[in-house]
Specification:
Elements: H1 7-62, E1 71-72, E2 84-89, E3 94-97, E4 113-116, E5 120-127, E6 132-139, H2 140-176, H3 178-189, H4 208-256, H5 260-291, E7 295-301, H6 303-316, E8 322-326, E9 332-335, H7 337-354, E10 361-365, E11 370-375, H8 382-385, H9 405-415, E12 419-423, E13 433-438, H10 442-445
Parallel strand pairs: 1-3, 8-10
Antiparallel strand pairs: 2-3, 2-6, 4-5, 5-6, 7-9, 10-11, 11-13, 12-13
C-alpha cells in the first residue's frame, strides 16, 4: 500500500492503524480470558448442581418400594434445559433422570470428576460408597453460544469506538499540525514579490530550525533582489541625462556639419543613442514592474489610461495603425494605472514592431477586463513562444527591439496576480500573434 504523501496523513494512518490493532488485540485477549473464566464458572455450576441433587435423589430412591425402578422427573412448564442429569446404581441401571436427559449423552461412570465428550461437558459424583452415581451434563454448544454472545458484546462497541477513535486521531493530528500547514502555505506563497519572514511562535520545536533557515534564505534573497533592482533603476536613471546631452550634441553636429561622411557617422551615432535611450527606459519600466506596488486599495476605470496611451501612438504611428474596440461600460481593476499604461505601451510597441505594417494592429478591451492585442505575421514556433517572456528574448525576427517588452508585461502580470497568455497563430486563424492580458480584480486578490 502506498503511504500518503503528507505528514498529517502518515501520522493519522500510523496512529489509527496502531490504535485499531491494539483495540482488536485487547478485545481478543479479553475474549480468551473471559472464555476461560466462563468455563470455570460453568464447571463449578456442574459440580454444585450434582452435589445438591445427589442427596435429595438418594433419599427419594431409598424411599421407593420397587428396587431398580427408573423415574423421569416431570417439568412444570416447557423451558430450555441447559443442565441435564442421570442417576444410576452400581449396575448401570438408570434410577432417575431429568426430563430432557438422553441416555446416549451420558457415558458409563468411570470415576468422580469432570469428563468431556464431543458434544457435552459432564461432572460425575457418587454416594453410598459408589452404589449410586450422578452425572450432570451441559451441551458444549451452550458454552459456545455464550462465548459468541460475549464476543459480540465486546465487538459491537468497537464498531462505534474504532471509527470515533480514528476520527479523534485524525482531528488531533490535524489540529496539532495546523501551524505546520500554515508554515507550508506561507512558504508556497512566497516569491519574488513577497519575501517576508514565515512561521510564528506556534511552530513545533522540530520545525522551528527549518523556519529559521528559510527566513535567513528569504532575507538574503530579498537583499540580493533589492540590490539588483536598485542597480537597474539607478543605472537607467543616471543614464538619461548623459544620453540626452550626447544626443543633443550629435543632433547639433548633424545640423552644423556639411561633410557627408561626418553626417553619416553622426546619424549612426544618433540611432545608437536613441536605442540606448529606449533601453534605459525599458530597464526603468522593468525595475518598476519588479519592485513597486502594482495593486491599489480601490478599483478604478482603466479606459482613460488606455485612451491616453492610444493618443500617444496616434501621434507617432497614425490612428489608422491601431484598430481599437473598447467596452462602453467602465472597466474596473485595482491594477495601478501607471503599471497598466506600461503594459499597454509595451504590447502595442511589440505589435507595431513585429507586424508587417500593411494590416492594422487590433486592440480589444471588454467589460470583464480582458485586454487582447493582435498583430499579423508568420506564426511563432511553440518552443519559441514559451521563451518570449524571458529577458532579452526576441525570437526569430529581424525587427529592432530590446527584447524586454513582453518580459516587462510578464513581470507586471506576476506581481499583480494577473494572467498573461500568448497565442500564435491567432485562434481561428493560420497566422498572426495574439497577447491576452487579464486584469486583476479585487475578488481575485482575496
Amino acid at each position: 500500500m502506498k503511504l500518503p504523501g503528507s505528514l498529517q496523513g502518515r501520522l493519522a494512518l500510523a496512529l489509527g492503524s496502531g490504535l485499531t490493532m491494539l483495540w482488536l488485540a485487547t478485545s481478543l485477549v479479553t475474549a480468551i480470558l473471559l472464555r476461560s473464566e466462563m468455563n470455570e464458572v460453568f464447571d463449578s455450576t456442574l459440580e454444585e448442581t450434582a452435589q445438591r441433587i445427589l442427596p435429595l435423589a438418594v433419599l427419594d430412591i431409598l424411599d421407593r418400594e420397587e428396587e431398580g425402578a427408573s423415574q423421569r422427573i416431570a417439568t412444570l412448564r416447557q423451558h430450555e434445559e441447559f443442565f441435564t442429569y442421570i442417576i444410576r446404581d452400581n449396575q448401570g441401571r438408570v434410577l432417575l433422570r431429568s426430563h430432557a436427559a438422553t441416555d446416549a449423552d451420558f457415558p458409563a461412570f468411570e470415576g468422580m470428576g469432570f469428563r468431556q465428550t464431543a458434544t457435552h461437558r459432564l461432572y460425575y459424583d457418587a454416594a453410598l460408597q459408589g452404589t449410586i452415581t450422578i452425572a450432570v451434563a451441559e451441551p458444549l454448544s451452550h458454552r459456545d453460544k455464550v462465548a459468541r454472545e460475549v464476543l459480540i458484546g465486546l465487538a459491537l462497541p468497537l464498531v462505534v469506538v474504532i471509527p470515533l477513535g480514528l476520527f479523534g486521531v485524525f482531528w488531533i493530528v490535524r489540529r496539532s499540525l495546523r501551524p505546520v500547514r500554515r508554515f507550508s502555505d506561507a512558504v508556497a506563497c512566497r516569491g519574488a514579490r513577497d519575501l517576508s519572514a514565515v512561521g510564528d511562535g506556534n511552530l513545533p520545536d522540530e520545525i522551528k530550525p527549518v523556519a529559521n533557515a528559510v527566513n535567513e534564505v528569504l532575507e538574503r534573497l530579498a537583499r540580493t533582489l533589492e540590490a539588483e533592482r536598485s542597480f537597474t533603476s539607478n543605472a537607467a536613471h543616471e543614464l538619461r541625462t548623459p544620453l540626452a546631452a550626447a544626443l543633443a550634441q550629435i543632433q547639433r553636429l548633424m545640423a552644423e556639419t556639411t561633410d557627408s561622411a561626418t553626417s553619416q557617422r553622426a546619424t549612426e551615432i544618433e540611432v545608437a543613442l536613441m536605442r540606448l535611450t529606449r533601453l534605459s527606459q525599458k530597464l526603468m519600466q522593468l525595475a518598476r514592474a519588479e519592485g513597486g506596488r502594482l495593486r491599489r486599495e480601490t478599483e478604478t476605470d482603466l479606459r482613460p489610461v488606455l485612451n491616453m496611451v492610444l493618443a500617444e501612438f496616434d501621434k507617432t504611428a497614425g490612428p489608422a495603425r491601431i484598430e481599437r474596440e473598447i467596452a462602453n461600460d467602465p472597466v474596473l481593476s485595482d491594477l495601478d494605472p501607471d503599471a497598466f499604461a506600461i503594459v499597454v505601451r509595451n504590447l502595442i510597441e511589440n505589435a507595431l514592431r513585429h507586424g508587417t505594417g500593411d494590416i492594422a494592429v487590433k486592440l480589444h478591451l471588454n467589460g470583464k477586463g480582458t485586454l487582447r492585442v493582435i498583430n499579423d505575421g508568420l506564426p511563432v514556433a511553440p518552443e519559441t513562444l514559451t521563451q518570449l517572456t524571458a529577458r532579452f528574448e526576441r525570437g526569430q525576427t529581424s525587427a529592432r527591439g530590446s527584447g524586454l517588452g513582453l518580459s516587462i508585461v510578464q513581470a507586471i502580470s506576476d506581481g499583480a496576480q494577473a494572467t498573461l497568455t500568448l497565442h500564435s497563430p491567432v485562434p481561428g486563424r493560420s497566422d498572426g500573434f495574439e497577447v491576452v492580458f487579464q486584469l486583476p480584480r479585487r475578488a481575485q486578490a482575496g
